Amino acid sequence: MNFESIANQAAVKRILQRTVAQNQLPNSYLFAGYEGIGKWAMALALAAYLNCHRRSDADSCGQCPSCRQISRLQHPNVYIAVPTPPSKSDKEELQNYWEILEAKQAEPYALITGERQLSIPVATVREMKRSLMQKPAASGRRVVIIEQMERMLTSSADALLKLIEEPPPETLLILTSSQPERLQATIISRCRRVSFNRLPEEEVARYLAERHGLSTDTATLLARLSQGSLGQALHIRADEIAQDREVAKLLFKGITRAGATEVVAEAAHLLPFRDRSRIKSVLLTWQTLFRDLIALQAGADQSYLVNVDFVGELERLAIGISAPRRLMNVPSMIGATIGDVNLNVDTQSAVGALIIKIQETLRGQPPAQ
After folding, report:
1. CATH of span 238-363
2. In the list 141, 242, 251, 290, which could disulfide-bond 330, CB 3.0-4.6 Å?
């Protein structure tokens, strides 16, 4: 993993390269931005750059023993914490940990998802601290990568704070987060923030076509659905996600046409509420569908739409909406529910409440019961 292999994010690459060249690395970074846009990949690329035996001014070589070890996520100078599902034993927790790392090694942009609530346990942070207190096993700079910092338990964050305040010599901490507003203010204040942008659609489509062998049409559709996230595009690609998208479209039509009671009941029957990642995919589909409706109401050309395979139905729905201005509030309402789903809320209640709220917004009055 090196800078060249990362999709886009040219500004971030320049910042990191200049900082290293000027010997001005901070003790800790906060890589902030949407899920699946390259924060994890950039953290590994920086670790490789700092430990490469034959690096140039611009990048690591990608071939030396250090670079190969980091690519395999097995370098003694690189410490990684990732969110894992609840475990019944240390053995199960370790197994979950390595399964996630294997998936991230195979595809750096893969999302870390699961049916159960994920978190970074305090034992992981404490073990990491103990390891960092020991003499480094290899020359170079030690790099600590904590993926999805917002999923860290409060007790874990408290244990981490001491490490951020007093890091061992030649040690860099990199925290990644798609929801930095949920982090402790004391942690944020001690990190240098680097913001990542969502990826252009053409970059997502190119990556999918070149790295995963997808057809141009499939890669383009996934790119439009991904909202600038390679991770989300890869997640949508799975068969069950494709099925969920069809369910999302069916419920979307119900939201704009049927009564709340009927749609909520249909959602209870069709949606996989126990799987938070799939519920998020459904909500993201709704978000893009309502944004397409807004675009059509504003007279936008079809080339600006995400759901181009659904344009005929969207045009019919757009004609039937009597208060187009009310549509403007719906995507942010869905976004707020996606944020709630990331937390430990009852997903069925959250989605049911969202359906009712959307209908109230569209009709300007509570839906008939």
Report:
1. 1.20.272.10
2. 290
Exposure string over 255-292, b if 16+ CB within 10 A, otherwise e? bbebebeebbebbeebbbbebbbbbbbbbbbbbbbbbb
Considering just the CA atoms, what is the radius of gyration of the chain in Å? 22
Considering the entire predicted model, what is its pTM?
Answer: 0.73
143 forms beta bridges with 78, 172
User: Which one, of 192, 172, 177, lies nearest residue 46 by Cα?
Assistant: 172
Query: CA 65 from chain center: how many Å?
Result: 30
Q: CA–CA separation, 143 vs 153, rounded Å?
A: 21
Please report, for the chain, the start and end positions of each structural domain, with discontinuous segments joined by +. 3-195, 238-363
Question: Whose CA is closest to 317, among 291, 343, 349, 339?
Answer: 291
Whole-number Cα distances in Å, 85 to 23, 52, 82, 92, 345: 38, 33, 10, 10, 16
- Asked if 111 and 147 touch (Cβ cutoff 8 Å), the reply is no
Q: What is the pLDDT of residues 292-341, one digit of tens each?
A: 999 888 888 877 888 887 888 888 888 776 666 778 889 999 999 999 99
Report the SS3 class of residue 166: coil
Q: Which residues contact 113 (CB under 8 A, 6 or more apart)?
A: 235, 276, 277
CA distance 323 to 293: 12
Give me the CATH topology for the region 3-195: Rossmann fold (3.40.50)
CA triplet 40, 351, 300: central angle to 5 degrees? Answer: 75
Residue 271 and residue 279 in contact, taking contact as beta carbons nearer than 8 Å = yes
Q: Are 28 and 190 in contact (CB under 8 A)?
A: yes
pLDDT in tens, 62-114: 999 999 999 999 999 999 999 888 888 888 888 989 999 999 999 999 998 77
Rounded-to-integer distance, Cα 204 and Cα 201, Å:
5
C-alpha 21/C-alpha 224 separation (Å) is 37
In contact, 121 and 23? CB cutoff 8 Å: no
Distance of CA 278 to the CA centre of its chain: 13
The Cα–Cα gap between 184 and 353 comes to 29
Q: Which residues neighbour 222 within 8 Å (Cβ) at sequence distance 6 or greater?
A: 204, 205, 208, 214, 233, 236, 237
